[in-house]
Design goal:
It holds the Pfam family Peripla_BP_6. By secondary structure, the protein is an alpha+beta fold. The chain folds into two domains: 44 residues, no CATH class; 40 residues, no CATH class. The chain has three helices and seven strands. It has a three-stranded antiparallel beta sheet, with no helix packed on it. It has a two-stranded antiparallel sheet with strand order 4-7. The longest helix is centred in the first third of the chain and has 8 residues. The radius of gyration is 19 Å and the shape is elongated. The two termini are 20 Å apart.
Length: 96
């Protein structure tokens, strides 16, 4: 997303890049969409609810050692359910 904002802004000026990020989207890792909110420059994305489970199909591996446990997905919270209206009153520099 940042590289795309640099391309869109055509410069590495921080203010120009910040404005270029507003409303930008990228595909998420699970077929969802990740959005940079224009109102407050916060990322909005779904949330995965998970727990550690010895019956998980993929186990944790660290330093070549398998630990016999892995992540189990317990649920999803959609972007719409996970994103509250903002009360941000961000003071912005003028748009370049």
């Amino acid at each position: 997303m940042f590289a795309a904002a640099l391309d869109k802004a055509g410069t590495d000026d921080p203010v120009a890049v910040a404005y270029a990020l507003e409303g930008m989207t990228i595909p998420g890792p699970h077929g969802d969409t990740i959005v940079m909110r224009a109102e407050n420059h916060q990322i909005a994305m779904p949330m995965v609810v998970s727990s550690i489970d010895p019956n998980a199909p993929i186990k944790f591996v660290y330093g070549g050692e398998t630990f016999g446990i892995g992540w189990k997905t317990d649920g999803w919270v959609s972007t719409a359910e996970n994103t509250l209206p903002t009360t941000c009153k961000m003071k912005r520099p003028p748009k370049p």
